[in-house]
Amino acid sequence: MDNSTEKDEKPLDFIRQIVVADQESGKHATPVTRFPPEPNGFLHIGHAKSICLNFGIADEFNGTCHLRFDDTNPTKEEDEYVRAIKEDVQWLGFDWGENLFFSSDYFDKLYDFAVELIKREKAYVCGLNAEEMRQHRGTLKEPGKESPYRNRSIEENLELFTAMKEGKFDEGTHVLRAKIDMASPNLNMRDPVIYRIMKATHHRTGDKWCIYPMYDYTHCLSDEQEVITHSLCTLEFEDHRPLYDWFLDVLETPSHPRQIEFARLNLNYTVMSKRKLMQLVQENHVQGWDDPRMLTVSGLRRRGYTPASIRNFCAEIGIGKRESWIDMGVLENAVRNDLNIIAPRVLGVLDPLKVVITNYPEDKTEDIKAKNHPQNPDMGSRSLPFSRELYIERTDFMEDPPKKFFRLGIGREVRLRYAYFITCESVVKDEQTGEILEVHCTYDPATYGGNAPDGRKVKGTIHWVSAKHALKCEIRLYDRLFAVENPDADKDVDFKEHLNPNSLQSLPNCMVEPSLADLAPGDCVQFERQGYFCVDLKDSSPGQPVFNRTVGLRDSWAKRNK
RNA sequence: UGGGGCGUAGCCAAGCGGUUAAGGCAUCGGGUUUUGAUCCCGACAUUCGGAGGUUCGAUCCCUCCCGCCCCAGCCA
């Protein structure tokens, strides 16, 4: 009858539809999902999409979500990343509770499963080297050739596999392979490698093992061990699903999770692969994994993005199977929307220009009352010191401005936010360079607070700060890291060629209202008429904040002047 | 005819045989405003990659065609 309440419900994506269907059919009362990062780099916004999906489903349907580190390759993985990944997942607002796992937790079980495969004549030790194996694999259009070692006896395989485990062979001399079908049109099914010899120290198991299981083999069995119901991964693993199912079927495991693939996130003006992010860090194109220009979770955090804004972003872009490119503007919009609600408004001047109020007493200081949030009285107000000498934004003054410039110009009157109307009388210039040094104005004492008793209107309101009370500080403005929409588009051009040389602009001489000395690292504010800024987590010190611009305000004035 | 996937507006994305083809971003108008912000209103696909077919009726089912993405690591 009345479907008005249903109207604004966001439709379920295809994965959630499957979860609901499984719930309704009784297949799974509650879902168990997992987020399975490899600890070989920092998490980025693409991982955030997966985290929000997996943990989100668990939250919404009364299930659980495991955090499982997929650590099957000891040569690439490090503890430092484990620590950072945990911090990022928590910061995003998710809790794995007791469910913290490592694929390496299952190394013993995985080994037993491999022995079982051999006994079922579904795996064999192969002595082909990497190059030979590549040749035997065939091509996309031609079937592969069977390995000469394919029909070894169970006993021989068992003996050889034990020897592999005991370190009796060198790396690369033997592998354990699944015995499936060398003629399969799906290359993943052409007797894939299950175990390889790696004489490396593992970050958790140390030197216990010198053979390590491969991803395809490990992942399905780890999921199975944890009784995962829905194993969500990205599209490129679609071709691996038959193999995922094959291992579970052959081993007749009690549980058989369902792998479901979705499209990874692409954002324009950035790169998303861990390898490329790593390169930017190692070659010092950025100042670390948490550089505010990086779309890593830690970079976004340092940039001033809130966890809620990232979650909202992920919810907004949805889940599907289409390869899509999201505009960076959508991400920026997500922070604006969140910060617009929660960020206190303050006054700060990025590029200071001195203003002298010639008819204001030399030694006088007044308190000006300013709202902390014009739309939210609950956020209260504060007082701003006002005196004869002020700073305003250099871009808010033009000697001979065009008509539509609603700011200060010679002979023009504007409002100083919350303070007084001022009229510009003259400018003082550097005789050599012509640079404007000072602007001389008069104020109307009757306009205290920003309203004229005679009812006269003023077109513009500009921000300001009292010169002798201002806190001088550094503010960093960030722009997109790349100058083109898709830095990866041309395979013949290195993506780093497209780095935006102006992605970081540091302003060391900004003047902000004095109350900002009390801010703590991570606090965010809106500098009115400028944008949202946060106190840098690393480079700020007590009483001396360094600000990062998270994102600018929408600016229809700048837009029309393009 | 290797195999697997995907095509709805500038960018995302609902839609599940009968809808005025949701919603968001962007864009363009208008209003409010002591932030050129926010907020509020309005405009924005006769059409769903193309062509056929099934059906009273197709974005949705079938066929063919076109386009894009993924796969030949002892990476994940």
Overview of this protein structure:
This protein has 562 residues and is an alpha/beta fold. It folds into three domains: 209 residues, Rossmann fold (3-Layer(aba) Sandwich); 109 residues, Glutamyl-tRNA Synthetase, Domain 3 (Glutamyl-tRNA Synthetase, domain 3); 125 residues, Ribosomal Protein L25, Chain P (Beta Barrel). Helix 8 crosses helix 9. The longest helix has 16 residues. It is elongated, with a radius of gyration of 31 Å. The two termini are 51 Å apart. The N terminus is likely disordered. The structure holds one RNA strand of 76 nucleotides.
Q: How would you describe this structure in keywords?
A:
562 residues, alpha/beta, Rossmann fold, Glutamyl-tRNA Synthetase, domain 3, Ribosomal Protein L25, Chain P, seven-stranded mixed beta sheet, 29 strands, 26% helix, elongated, RNA-binding
SSE topology sketch:
Layout: H1 4-7, H2 14-25, E1 32-35, H3 45-60, E2 64-69, H4 79-91, E3 100-102, H5 107-119, E4 123-126, H6 130-136, H7 154-165, E5 175-178, E6 193-197, E7 211-213, H8 215-225, E8 230-234, H9 241-250, E9 258-262, E10 265-267, H10 274-282, H11 297-303, H12 307-317, E11 324-326, H13 328-342, E12 345-346, E13 348-349, E14 352-357, E15 366-371, E16 381-386, E17 389-393, E18 397-398, E19 408-409, E20 413-416, E21 421-429, E22 436-443, E23 461-462, E24 464-466, E25 471-478, E26 504-512, E27 524-527, E28 531-535, E29 546-552, H14 556-560
Parallel strand pairs: 1-2, 2-3, 8-9, 10-11, 12-27, 14-22, 18-19, 20-23, 25-29
Antiparallel strand pairs: 4-5, 5-6, 6-7, 13-26, 14-17, 15-16, 17-24, 20-21, 21-22, 25-26, 27-28, 28-29
Helix pairs in contact: 3-12, 8-9, 12-13
The structure holds one RNA strand of 76 nucleotides.
